[in-house]
Amino acid sequence: MTSRLAFDLRGQKKLTSCVAVKIRYTDFNTYSLQKSIPFTAQDGPLLAQVKELFGKLYQRRQLVRLIGVKFTNLVHGHTQISLFEDTQEEVTALLATYSTFQFNAAVRELGKVFGLPKEEIDHFADDVLKATGTEDVRYWKVDNPKFEGLAAQSQNSGETGKQTKLDILKYARLLHGFPNHLGIHAGGVVISERPIFCHTALQLMPKGFPISHFDMNHAEDFGFHKFDVLSQRGLGHIKDAVALVKKNQGRAVDIHDLDHIKQDAKVREQLRSGHCIGCFYIESPAMRGLLHKLRCDTYVHLVAASSIIRPGVAKSGMMREYNPKEKFEASGLLFADEHETFELPELSEGQFDQAFDEIELLGFHVGSPYDLLEKSESYTGAFAAELKGRIGRMVVIEGFYVARKDVRTVKGEMMHFGTWLDREGKFFDTVHFPAFAKMSPFRGKGIYRIEGNSPRSSVHHT
Questions:
Q1: Runs of H (alpha helix) within 299-432
Q2: CA angle 6, 12, 16 (to 5 degrees)
Q3: pLDDT by residue (tens digit) across 108-140?
Q4: What are the two backbone dihedrals, phi and then psi, of residue 179, each rounded to the nearest 5 degrees?
Q5: What would the CATH number be for the domain defined by 2-76?
Q6: How many CA atoms lie within 13 A of 421 on its CB side?
Q7: What whole-number distance in Å separates Cα of residue 251 and Cα of residue 262?
Q8: What topology does CATH give the domain 384-458?
Q9: Which of 367, 343, 344, 346 is nearest to 355 (CA)?
Q10: Cβ neighbours of residue 37 under 8 Å, at least 6 residues apart?
């Protein structure tokens, strides 16, 4: 029974932290016990706890009518196997990471301290973003007239409410970047000769593993070596891809025939063109652009590209030295878009009622987002496929927001890389430098009107 329940947990990708056993005897008297345990879904620990609880409940002189086992306090996750089952637990721990106060956390926590209600904190945080155009508190100027206006918009219309919000802005700048709470460094392990608590306090995390109170940088200062024990999740993606090909196309792909894969003409063409959205590990805008510029079509060049795209190498100038001449081409998509066709009944609804229902239920519109725009005038902007023909010129293009990546320059300023879909369903990428990112910040999901220069070094679409 316990093994079957544990198998079901693993199948649902869940963990339990509470085991309960119930026994009902023939006289209908019922007894139960439960015990909290570290999160797990493995047979061994769960069987041991069930046996222990059963031993405490079972009375050998009575006949048993019913036995029940229940797992509660379920969470989504995978069981992390112990690497040190044959080692003293006192000498090992996982490394911590410091989660620091950023814009939202700083403003919201200070709002609670000052006694503001949640609704007012929410509105105030949104208004700060609109007024400043940035989440980077270094660019907040509390003497700016915009802040004076924000502070005055308080449910407490007197000077007290205004001063409270100015104080929140003041202390949020000071609190920004300070540690908020501890997290787990992914796969980072430290091992000590003496018990680990001789060097640091420990905090037990929900999965039952202790973490140190220092991060990897301080671990090095203390003389510890950090061991990274990481899983290769890419293997799971390859396995899933092989299964999908067999299901949809009826063909078996031999992923062990590496020589054939490396020489596959279509694979090499896709790498050269940079059309790699949907390809694990090489689908980021920077990586797609680099593959296109390098005309990468061999395994050796692919390894080199994945190495020089890293921040340290990029800053050193090695990437510019490695770049050969640029040549722009376009080719077909790597994978055909999978979609299903649904037949919907005719409904007497307004123009956008169906779309609004889809957004409310699913979180997105199943059709093109451009269908929701007002048809007041025809579109005169550019399309992604036309960008390579407008190198060095200012272009205006409408894009549906897909994703963005936030990075900091060497000066510590925030800039962004954006990925968008145009009206024809083609992807294109943008770069938002610090000055423009502050003037025109991202506002979340939606369609943006983008105006900017189309430089030769970054023209790329899929």
A1: 299-308, 311-316, 318-322, 353-362
A2: 50
A3: 899 899 888 888 888 777 777 666 666 666 556
A4: -60, 140
A5: 3.30.1490.100
A6: 14
A7: 19
A8: OB fold (Dihydrolipoamide Acetyltransferase, E2P) (2.40.50)
A9: 367
A10: 16, 17, 18, 19, 45, 49, 208
Instruction: Tell me phi and psi for residue 314, to 5 degrees.
Output: -65, -40
CA distance linking residue 224 with residue 212, whole number of Å: 12
Note the pLDDT tens digit of each residue in 236-292. Answer: 778 888 889 989 998 888 888 888 888 889 989 988 888 888 887 788 888 888 888
Give the count of alpha carbons within 13 A of 309, CB side only.
20
Q: What's the chain's length in residues? A: 462
Please enumerate in sequence order all residues whose Cβ is within 8 A of that of 2, keeping only pairs 6 or more positions apart, or say none: 43, 46, 47, 50, 69
How many other C-beta atoms are found inside a 10 Å radius of the C-beta of residue 305? 19
Alpha-carbon span 170 to 110, nearest angstrom = 10
Residue type, 422: D
In DSSP terms, 407 is beta-bridged to 415
**In the chain, domain spans:** 2-76, 89-99+180-228, 102-177, 264-322, 384-458
Please give the full DSSP string across 409-431, using - where no structure is assigned. -TTS-EEEEEEEE-TTS-EEEEE
pLDDT tens per residue, range 292-323: 888 888 888 888 888 777 655 555 555 555 55
